[in-house]
User: What shape does this take?
Amino acid sequence: MEKNTQTWALPRQAMPEQDPQVRRANFREVPLGYSDRAAVMEAKRCLQCKKPSCVQGCPVEVDIPGFIRQIAQSDFDEATRIIWRTNSLPAVCGRVCPQEIQCEGACILAKRGGEAVAIGNLERFVADRAREAQMQDLPEVAEPTGKKVAVVGSGPSGLTVAGDLVVRGHEVTVFEAFHKPGGVLVYGIPEFRLPKGIVSSEVAMLERLGVRIACNQVVGRTVLVDELFEQGFDAVYIGVGAGLPTFLNIPGENLIGILSANEYLTRANLMKAYLFPEYDTPIARGRDVVVLGAGNVAMDAARTALRLGAETVRIVYRRSRTEMPARAAEIHHAEQEGVEMFLLSNPVRFCGDEQGRLTGMDCIRMELGEPDASGRRRPVPVQGSEFHLDCDLAIVAVGAGANPLLTGSTEGLKLNRWGYIVIDEESGKTSRRGVWAGGDIVTGAATVILAMGAGRIAANSMHTYLTLGW
Amino acid sequence: MYPIVHREEMSGGGVVLNEIHAPQIASRAKPGQFVILQANETGERIPLTMADTDPQAGTITVIYQVVGASTQLFKGLEVGKGYDDVVGPLGRPTHIEKVGTVLCVGGGTGVAVLHPITRAFRQAGNRVIGVIGARTRDLLILEDRMRAVTDELHVCTDDGSCGHHGFVTDVVKIILADRTVNQAVAIGPVPMMKFVCAITREADVPTMVSLNPIMVDGTGMCGGCRVSVGGENKFACVDGPEFDGHKVDFDQLMQRLTAYRADEKRSQETHACSLGQPGPAASDT
Assistant: This one.
């Protein structure tokens, strides 16, 4: 493609965004999307590598050069069809995947010291365009196989499995514990990063393909895995997420005004508490907010707190900036909006008033010592460096553990010592015949796209099982 | 939708009973378990421990006190209408076994939760003594049903309008003074549970309480329902809702229940406005 060799040196097309000072006060999406023209320009930067390393960098192996070539030729519908072949949630992935360490990280332009092709932005562009144009062509569905699949959990991995298996002719039912499907895409990731209308439209597409979504179904309580087999399901996929919030276990943690990021974000996102009192669910609104932890969830919580009217929002993290697990883009967005970083600081105790409400937090300074098991330098307290931070809302975002609701009620599932499900990495098979698992209930808290990748692997293996046997 | 098939008002309209068609939950629920109900898209998720289930009819029964905007909204749901969402059964069932004599103490709408547990203890072959109370006669609920599932029932009202004039704790003290009780169950307002537990602790009678803290998902995910039990944090939704009453930090629980009080008031005012009615006491009937 001669033309591309002339255009690859162009600068990467920037994604227009809401101004930080404006957006910190609203819940609308931050990046505004590419225009057709910007998308075509960006697509022309792609070198169309013969052995595309970007595809290897993608957990669901989207044909990246393929769809980008179509964008460059302004055939956006064909670009959509190419993505749909391997990715049932492109509007989601285009927004929340950590492209910088996956497809874009592997882009040859980046490796040569330039800027990677904006693959995520292009994927988002195509998916949004198809949705807005109400593109109706659905991926082709194979002849019915007569096999029934139960998918437990409607988060990213479950939806991937559902999409992959329904097009192969299997009858798929997705069981969701909440009253709305989408899992973490709906309760966890905020509206300003992933509008909920987009999630529901991607779920609606799966429903049009024939996937049945059953809400208010807590598998392990409402119905058991064993009963799913008795009801005639031939295979079960478990993608229930990690679930149990981790707390710090320091004094004062049960004061009013201290809550898990799970609770805070679920109230804001799933229950739309930011629209209180129009919506009935209330949410704690702090003036001086601290967020403990420095992952993507912590950034989401911090930015939500700003939008709910906080005057100060501080990320308190015991390691340094380089160890922060959040995506660089998320940290950047948070700082642009005014979130402050209190690094190398560790909470020691929470302080409250007589009504049991949070008033502040004692912290201690940390310094980095020798590397620990995770390879990161272990933070150690600096003697005599205690300091106090006033705060009236503290959001604990230091990770999650395995929720035992399903695993505790299902015989024959091998778990590791942290309670996560043990699987065969090649196939997603659990120790129990007919049962697969993937996503955070296997890996512990990770990313949307890794969960989707796990779903993809399991779906392939499930299809083989349903057609050929275990 | 989960339709309401039967509805009753009690306590002069301050307490409402809903029998709801939810066959899947009805077939599986055991005494002590709860459901989460949401009236509509904009509604809150409200956890309520089930007062009864009928697996044959495919129904569950909840009884709630009208205290805020959400329960006011629930109260407006007539027979034929229903809840958009009901999920359950959640929480662990009550551990029922034959221990000898069981003392079942209930206050306010706690009696609704106590009733199926009381019945189960009796069916397990225990001698069951019931003590139920309310502020005044009109607020007393389920007296007949409790009488039917106990070997003896004591009724108390704070104002003496019915039964013993005084608190349930007075009667509990008298019973424990001259009888052997092997197990107690106390369900009601947090202060009532706290004081009953103080008495049974002295008498060395193991006491189970059922808690209803603030929660969102009911599956262990939010941690909002954490309660301190024996100095350890437990989640009422997955570890409870029943706990050893002698180990629960009731004072902390009472404080945590006030977390959204200001918002609840605001929400109630908003709802009252939108109904064009004067205030929280307004009803749809």
In short: The first strand of chain A starts at residue 148 and ends at 152. The first helix of chain A runs from residue 2 to 7.
